[in-house]
Write a structure and sequence with these properties.
The protein is an alpha/beta fold. The protein has 16 helices and 14 strands. The strands form 3 sheets. The protein has a 6-stranded mixed β-sheet, with helices on both faces. Strands 5-4-3-6 form a 4-stranded parallel β-sheet, sandwiched between helices. A 4-stranded antiparallel β-sheet has the order 12-13-11-14. Helix 1 crosses helix 3, helix 3 crosses helix 7 and helix 9 packs parallel to helix 11. The longest helix is centred in the first third of the chain and has 15 residues.
């Protein structure tokens, strides 16, 4: 495998894509560094053109195709980011493109692919459905099929992230990379391990789609029955043959993170680092925040691979994250059905320095006495300790609040 993909091939890919892609920033994360006792850096691929690293591989592949073959049109299957990248690259090279996406694809990613000039086809509920449809159209309509990850030109393009790291940081002890199909980690690992064999490469998968970890544990590729995660960009049921071989050869560790931790990381990035990340782009941060990583001494780079997240999903993640952190509390309180009773309840909450966001007043609950009423309070608090203080104040005043 190292003869097929080596540092020279990745350097050549960098020259091909140089006129098109951005050299993305490498930012020092001071807060996380202090918290972890390591020097932590963010490689901000969410700031790449099209919003993710995918343009590196897509443009490299299409440019090489146009130089070596007669290509009339291209087609690909994608949950979003690869499709956007293929559409953008195809437009630059004056090629018609078709992107096959699952029907559940984020509307922002669908619209972005269309805006770049692609014809978008929505089909099925999984990437397998999309691959099948794209390959069928490839055969019937003579579109050239562009695989999202199991292609040496794609992997070489993604590996240029590793080249930039070599230029941006004198010494790197560890690089943490999101893993879906394995194109990004395969390219980065092949690049860095050849240039600096001592560097530790850690891959992070969503727990609901850990196809690469499953393959490594089994010693062979086996398709997962389901890939379900908020990190739709890495919801892959089975890795590629090429990428699996690269991971086996170069990657030191694979870890998984559940969706709750991915959501926490998205919220953390927004609040602490002012970064917009999609689920796939946040898995490396999630692994760090929730202590899944065994980091060596020295500089550690977290690759933040993309930022194409639907605004509705951001809203849901923020709301759920605030609830988990104790910063949003929902209480059910029974009060007398008398004038002034609601005002008295709310004054106690206000005295505890909590902010009432919403009040729901219900006299018709079946478990109530006739002279009582149910009040549901949505309250904003500073943290879990403050929420407990508010509940304590209500109890001292004679109420029996239930957190719901």
């Amino acid at each position: 495998m190292n003869k097929m993909l080596d540092l020279a091939k990745i350097r050549a890919a960098a020259q091909v894509i140089k006129p098109v892609i951005k050299k993305t920033p490498l930012d020092f994360a001071s807060y996380l560094s202090e918290r972890c006792g390591r020097r932590i850096f963010f490689k901000l691929e969410n700031r790449q053109k099209t919003g993710s690293f995918k343009l590196r591989g897509a443009y490299h592949k299409l440019k090489r195709l146009t130089e070596t073959e007669e290509v009339r049109s291209v087609i690909t299957a994608s949950a979003g980011n690869h499709g956007q990248a293929v559409a953008y690259a195809a437009a630059l090279l004056n090629l018609p493109s078709t992107v096959v996406m699952p029907q559940s694809a984020a509307i922002t990613k669908i619209n972005a692919a269309k805006a770049y000039g692609a014809r978008v086809v929505l089909t099925g509920s999984s990437m397998d459905d999309c691959f099948a449809e794209a390959f069928q159209q490839h055969i019937e309509k003579d579109h050239h099929f562009i695989h999202a990850f199991d292609d040496l030109d794609i992997i070489a393009g993604q590996g240029t992230v590793g080249l930039e790291l070599l230029e941006q940081l004198d010494e790197t002890a560890c690089v943490v990379v999101p893993v879906g199909g394995g194109g990004l980690i395969g390219g980065i690992a092949a690049c860095l391990k050849e240039a600096s064999p001592a560097v530790k490469i850690i891959g992070v998968e969503a727990a609901g789609a850990a196809s690469m970890a499953n393959a490594v544990n089994l010693g062979r590729i086996e398709k997962l029955p389901l890939a379900a995660t908020i990190a739709d960009g890495i919801a892959i049921q089975q890795p590629g043959e090429l990428t699996f071989a690269l991971v086996q050869k170069y990657v030191d560790q694979l870890v998984t993170v559940p969706d709750e931790e991915i959501a926490d990381a998205i919220l953390f990035a927004l609040e602490k680092s002012k970064l917009v990340l999609e689920g796939a782009g946040a898995v490396t941060l999630a692994a760090l925040l929730h202590n899944h990583l065994e980091l060596p001494q020295g500089n550690t780079v977290l690759v933040l691979s993309g930022g194409n997240i639907d605004v509705n999903q951001i809203a849901r993640i923020i709301e759920r994250g605030l609830v988990r952190a104790g910063r949003r509390v929902r209480l059910r309180v029974i009060i007398p059905d008398l004038p002034g009773a609601l005002a008295e309840l709310m004054s106690i909450v206000a005295s505890a320095q909590a902010n009432i966001i919403e009040v729901y007043h219900n006299r018709l609950a079946l478990d109530l006495l006739l002279n009582s009423t149910e009040v549901i309070l949505n309250i904003e608090t500073r943290d879990q300790a403050h929420a407990c203080q508010v509940i304590g104040a209500l109890k001292r005043a004679g109420y029996e609040p239930d957190q719901i």
